[in-house]
Amino acid sequence: MKPGQNDNHPAKDSRITVEPIKAVKDIKSIKKILASKPRDLCLFILGINTSLRASDLVSIKVSMVKSLEPGDELVLKEKKTGKPRRITMNKAVVDAIQGLLTPAPYKDDDYLFKSQRGDVLTVPSVSRLVKGWCRAINLKGNYASHTLRKTWGYHQRTAFNVDIPTLMSCFNHSTQRQTLEYLCVQPSEIKSVYMNEL
Questions:
Q1: What phi and psi values does residue 16 have, to the nearest 5 degrees?
Q2: What is the total count of domains within the chain?
Q3: What is the CATH number of the domain that holds 109?
Q4: SS3 of 77, please?
Q5: Who wins on pLDDT, 45 or 169?
Q6: Which residues of 76-88 are buried (b: 16+ CB within 10 A; e: fewer)?
Q7: How far apart are CA 88 and CA 70, in angstroms?
Q8: In which domain, by residue range, is 98 found?
Q9: Closest of 41, 49, 66, 46 to residue 57, by C-alpha
Q10: pLDDT tens for residues 14-39?
Protein backbone atom coordinates (compact mmCIF):
# COMPACT_ATOMS: atom_id res chain seq x y z
CA MET A 1 0.00 0.00 0.00
CA LYS A 2 1.32 3.45 -0.95
CA PRO A 3 1.75 6.17 1.71
CA GLY A 4 -1.48 8.12 2.19
CA GLN A 5 -3.56 5.45 0.42
CA ASN A 6 -6.84 4.53 2.08
CA ASP A 7 -6.85 0.77 2.70
CA ASN A 8 -10.64 0.83 3.03
CA HIS A 9 -11.11 2.30 -0.44
CA PRO A 10 -12.09 -0.32 -3.03
CA ALA A 11 -9.74 -0.97 -5.94
CA LYS A 12 -10.89 0.30 -9.32
CA ASP A 13 -13.80 -1.78 -10.72
CA SER A 14 -14.29 -3.58 -7.39
CA ARG A 15 -16.92 -3.16 -4.68
CA ILE A 16 -16.91 -3.45 -0.93
CA THR A 17 -20.15 -4.98 0.26
CA VAL A 18 -21.41 -3.61 3.56
CA GLU A 19 -23.34 -6.12 5.62
CA PRO A 20 -26.57 -5.93 7.59
CA ILE A 21 -26.59 -6.86 11.28
CA LYS A 22 -28.26 -10.26 10.97
CA ALA A 23 -28.58 -11.48 14.56
CA VAL A 24 -31.24 -9.92 16.78
CA LYS A 25 -28.96 -10.50 19.79
CA ASP A 26 -26.35 -8.21 18.18
CA ILE A 27 -28.98 -5.51 17.62
CA LYS A 28 -29.95 -5.78 21.30
CA SER A 29 -26.29 -5.60 22.35
CA ILE A 30 -25.76 -2.38 20.38
CA LYS A 31 -28.92 -0.85 21.87
CA LYS A 32 -27.58 -1.74 25.31
CA ILE A 33 -24.19 -0.06 24.80
CA LEU A 34 -25.94 3.03 23.39
CA ALA A 35 -28.50 3.30 26.21
CA SER A 36 -26.65 6.24 27.81
CA LYS A 37 -26.08 8.04 24.46
CA PRO A 38 -29.48 9.40 23.30
CA ARG A 39 -28.19 10.75 19.96
CA ASP A 40 -26.46 7.52 18.97
CA LEU A 41 -29.32 5.35 20.19
CA CYS A 42 -31.84 7.44 18.23
CA LEU A 43 -29.67 7.30 15.11
CA PHE A 44 -29.33 3.51 15.40
CA ILE A 45 -33.03 2.91 16.05
CA LEU A 46 -34.16 5.28 13.30
CA GLY A 47 -31.66 3.69 10.92
CA ILE A 48 -32.69 0.08 11.52
CA ASN A 49 -36.42 0.87 11.56
CA THR A 50 -36.62 2.75 8.25
CA SER A 51 -35.28 2.37 4.74
CA LEU A 52 -33.61 5.79 4.85
CA ARG A 53 -30.04 6.30 3.64
CA ALA A 54 -27.60 7.90 6.08
CA SER A 55 -27.61 11.08 3.94
CA ASP A 56 -31.36 11.36 4.57
CA LEU A 57 -31.11 10.50 8.27
CA VAL A 58 -28.63 13.32 8.90
CA SER A 59 -30.79 15.80 6.98
CA ILE A 60 -33.75 15.40 9.35
CA LYS A 61 -34.62 18.57 11.27
CA VAL A 62 -36.32 18.66 14.66
CA SER A 63 -39.43 20.35 13.27
CA MET A 64 -39.99 17.36 10.95
CA VAL A 65 -40.23 14.79 13.76
CA LYS A 66 -40.90 16.44 17.13
CA SER A 67 -44.69 16.01 17.01
CA LEU A 68 -44.83 12.60 15.31
CA GLU A 69 -46.74 9.74 16.91
CA PRO A 70 -46.61 6.04 16.00
CA GLY A 71 -48.27 5.59 12.60
CA ASP A 72 -47.53 9.16 11.48
CA GLU A 73 -45.42 9.78 8.38
CA LEU A 74 -42.10 11.54 8.05
CA VAL A 75 -42.01 13.25 4.65
CA LEU A 76 -38.68 14.27 3.16
CA LYS A 77 -36.91 14.65 -0.16
CA GLU A 78 -34.23 12.03 -0.80
CA LYS A 79 -30.76 13.51 -1.18
CA LYS A 80 -29.65 10.88 -3.72
CA THR A 81 -32.70 10.83 -6.01
CA GLY A 82 -34.42 14.14 -5.27
CA LYS A 83 -37.68 12.17 -4.98
CA PRO A 84 -40.11 12.68 -2.09
CA ARG A 85 -40.24 9.85 0.48
CA ARG A 86 -42.93 9.02 3.00
CA ILE A 87 -41.78 6.88 5.92
CA THR A 88 -44.24 5.64 8.55
CA MET A 89 -42.84 5.96 12.06
CA ASN A 90 -43.21 3.02 14.44
CA LYS A 91 -43.30 3.24 18.25
CA ALA A 92 -39.59 2.40 18.68
CA VAL A 93 -38.62 5.32 16.42
CA VAL A 94 -40.99 7.80 18.09
CA ASP A 95 -39.78 6.76 21.56
CA ALA A 96 -36.13 7.16 20.51
CA ILE A 97 -36.79 10.61 19.02
CA GLN A 98 -38.59 11.74 22.17
CA GLY A 99 -35.76 10.30 24.28
CA LEU A 100 -33.32 12.46 22.34
CA LEU A 101 -35.38 15.65 22.30
CA THR A 102 -36.73 15.62 25.85
CA PRO A 103 -33.60 16.38 27.91
CA ALA A 104 -31.74 18.49 25.33
CA PRO A 105 -32.57 22.08 24.33
CA TYR A 106 -33.37 21.71 20.62
CA LYS A 107 -34.82 24.35 18.31
CA ASP A 108 -37.16 23.54 15.41
CA ASP A 109 -34.54 24.34 12.78
CA ASP A 110 -31.79 22.25 14.46
CA TYR A 111 -30.69 19.05 12.81
CA LEU A 112 -31.81 16.03 14.81
CA PHE A 113 -28.35 14.47 14.70
CA LYS A 114 -25.65 16.98 15.62
CA SER A 115 -21.91 16.46 15.92
CA GLN A 116 -19.99 17.20 19.13
CA ARG A 117 -19.37 20.71 17.75
CA GLY A 118 -23.08 21.26 17.08
CA ASP A 119 -22.78 20.91 13.28
CA VAL A 120 -24.87 18.47 11.28
CA LEU A 121 -23.54 14.91 11.54
CA THR A 122 -21.93 13.73 8.27
CA VAL A 123 -22.32 10.39 6.48
CA PRO A 124 -18.62 9.48 7.07
CA SER A 125 -19.22 10.20 10.77
CA VAL A 126 -22.23 7.86 10.74
CA SER A 127 -20.03 5.17 9.14
CA ARG A 128 -17.40 5.62 11.85
CA LEU A 129 -20.08 5.35 14.55
CA VAL A 130 -21.57 2.16 13.07
CA LYS A 131 -18.11 0.57 12.72
CA GLY A 132 -17.36 1.49 16.34
CA TRP A 133 -20.64 0.04 17.64
CA CYS A 134 -20.05 -3.23 15.76
CA ARG A 135 -16.44 -3.41 17.02
CA ALA A 136 -17.62 -2.77 20.58
CA ILE A 137 -19.71 -5.97 20.50
CA ASN A 138 -17.00 -7.93 18.61
CA LEU A 139 -19.10 -8.24 15.48
CA LYS A 140 -16.92 -9.48 12.62
CA GLY A 141 -17.55 -8.23 9.09
CA ASN A 142 -17.74 -5.04 7.07
CA TYR A 143 -20.10 -2.45 8.55
CA ALA A 144 -20.75 1.22 7.74
CA SER A 145 -23.61 3.71 7.40
CA HIS A 146 -25.47 1.53 4.86
CA THR A 147 -25.55 -1.25 7.47
CA LEU A 148 -28.49 0.49 9.17
CA ARG A 149 -30.70 0.53 6.08
CA LYS A 150 -29.62 -2.98 5.09
CA THR A 151 -30.40 -4.28 8.58
CA TRP A 152 -33.96 -2.94 8.26
CA GLY A 153 -34.44 -4.65 4.90
CA TYR A 154 -32.76 -7.90 5.94
CA HIS A 155 -35.08 -8.34 8.92
CA GLN A 156 -38.16 -7.25 6.96
CA ARG A 157 -37.36 -10.08 4.54
CA THR A 158 -36.13 -12.82 6.88
CA ALA A 159 -38.17 -12.20 10.05
CA PHE A 160 -41.35 -10.60 8.71
CA ASN A 161 -41.46 -12.26 5.23
CA VAL A 162 -41.99 -8.97 3.40
CA ASP A 163 -41.98 -9.71 -0.33
CA ILE A 164 -39.21 -8.46 -2.62
CA PRO A 165 -41.44 -6.15 -4.76
CA THR A 166 -42.54 -4.31 -1.58
CA LEU A 167 -38.95 -3.99 -0.34
CA MET A 168 -37.88 -2.88 -3.81
CA SER A 169 -40.40 -0.06 -3.58
CA CYS A 170 -39.28 0.86 -0.03
CA PHE A 171 -35.64 1.03 -1.15
CA ASN A 172 -36.48 2.83 -4.39
CA HIS A 173 -34.57 0.12 -6.31
CA SER A 174 -35.11 -0.38 -10.03
CA THR A 175 -34.96 -4.21 -10.06
CA GLN A 176 -35.78 -7.08 -7.72
CA ARG A 177 -32.29 -8.51 -8.31
CA GLN A 178 -30.77 -5.27 -7.00
CA THR A 179 -32.85 -5.61 -3.83
CA LEU A 180 -31.90 -9.28 -3.31
CA GLU A 181 -28.22 -8.51 -3.72
CA TYR A 182 -28.51 -5.46 -1.48
CA LEU A 183 -30.05 -7.48 1.34
CA CYS A 184 -27.35 -10.19 1.30
CA VAL A 185 -30.07 -12.89 1.37
CA GLN A 186 -29.93 -14.12 -2.21
CA PRO A 187 -27.33 -16.93 -1.76
CA SER A 188 -29.16 -18.46 1.22
CA GLU A 189 -32.57 -18.14 -0.47
CA ILE A 190 -31.26 -19.79 -3.64
CA LYS A 191 -29.64 -22.57 -1.60
CA SER A 192 -32.90 -23.22 0.24
CA VAL A 193 -34.76 -23.57 -3.08
CA TYR A 194 -32.52 -26.52 -4.00
CA MET A 195 -33.36 -28.18 -0.69
CA ASN A 196 -37.06 -28.44 -1.66
CA GLU A 197 -37.76 -32.08 -2.53
CA LEU A 198 -40.29 -33.21 -5.14
A1: -105, 120
A2: 1
A3: 1.10.443.10
A4: strand
A5: 45
A6: beeeeeeeebebe
A7: 8
A8: 24-159
A9: 46
A10: 456 899 999 999 999 999 999 999 99
